[in-house]
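HUMAN: I'm a chemist; might I ask for a sequence paired with its structure tokens?

ASSISTANT:
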Amino acid sequence: MSNQREDTAATESPANTRLAVLLAMAMFVLVVDTSLMNVSISAVVRDLDTTVSGVQSAIALEALVSAAFILIGSKVGDLIGRKRAYVLGLLGYATGAIAMTLAQSLTAVIVFWAVIGGLGASLLLPAMQSLVHGNFEGAAQRKAYALVGAAAAIAAAVGPLLGGFVTTYLSWRVAFGMEAVIIAVVLSGIRLVHDAPYTGPRTVDPVGAVLSVLAMGGLVLSILVWQEGGEFVLLLMAVGAVALGSLVKWLVSRKRAGRPTLVDPELFEIPTFRLGISQQMLQQIALGGAMIALPIYLQMVLEYNAMEAGLSLAPLSLSMFAVAILAGRMQGARRPSGIIRAGFALLALGMAALLPIVPRADSGWALVIPLIVAGCGLGLLVSQLNNYTLGPISDERVSEAAGINSAAGSFGLSFGLAFAGAIMLATLSVAFTHKSDNSSVLPPDDKAQIADTLQRDAEVMSNTELEALLADQPGDVQDEVLRINTEARPLALQVALCIPILAALLGLGNSFRMVRLPEPESKGDAEGMAFG
């Protein structure tokens, strides 16, 4: 009965309610940031005189930096305090947002938004999850996690619409300025946050830290380099794979020797935690893949402006928001593992339904039903996964557990963004070359040059822009190049969409293992149920 009274008090307390809202606002900024960038790609390319692949690489790099340093960020939070790490993370994100309002080149975007903002996220994500865990218990904790998940869904819903509206009628810079304002509001309530204490070992594990950066960074960076047509792709991939294996061995051997580790490998012995982080990663791979391919398709193939692209993505984001709220309210009525299984099934179904539609679509309306189905699946997932994974973990170990959970999500997002983008551009390159070589219209002496031009430029140009580029060519050559361009792009999108489909199917398979396990209970639900 005492636990019930405490839960009720925590839920009804105005201070606790405000704290939960502020933590949810911090999550809102994290999610809306990338949504704004995705829907504003064409405007950013035009204003900064850069390329789609360059902006795409900056988007993936931001997620990469976050993923590569997030385990270190969780340990930094242990050492300097989770509340202080939370504040520093917010300030890092604010720096990136302000820089975007002032940026005059892609270099500024990469340095301030991608790198500094990514480092801010590596501190903010695990600290925020630790503070939710440490400031709430039982039912109040579940509601706080649900509110944070709903905030992520709201950001996904509002991001494309807000970004599209502001970019079309004002400027994409104004949208990022609004982010800085939200962060200022969150920081204004920092006194409500009680630090989640850490009494464990304070020794730093520098070898584990370096290996974690090399592991996650090397794998995703190899895909980014491949996407840009650079060299040393296999070398970077090998570095990442070797570093990952070495990190596992290092953590296990150091733990057996009784020495402090970057993260406790014993956490992976908890079945629900192990499955939870793998599902988090797969969900983010699917989301990242979809959110890089679809905005590029809408803006570069259908020639939509940012507002039209945002409206076209609204069925995905709004259904995600609505279902996340509904699933949070029904959380006690159904098993979380069953909800997660339904989420991955709907996500896979919605993404797969896009494949036959894409080549025939002449407007965003053709995508509405599949996007609603996929959004419902994502809504079910975001309502459950964080609480499923972190709910049973004790306060003492929650920071490193949250760091691993956040690392899995950030790595999945960066991998999905980079790999789907790379596959999309690689397919364009192959299709351009093949169709140019087989053309009976293009002059034989010009085929190589035209194919090279299409590979280098066409993926960042609409047909209208390409037509202007070909103004001095004969009419039949113009028509043939436009035909090649028109046929290659839907094919490239179809191939890129295979990434989120595959991730969703793997998550669906994993969910059958989840339903065979006992459901995890939050640390405040029953005495002795917390692991650790």
Observations:
- Residues 1-12, 524-532 have pLDDT under 50 and may be disordered.
- Residues 92 and 116 are 6 Å apart (CA to CA).
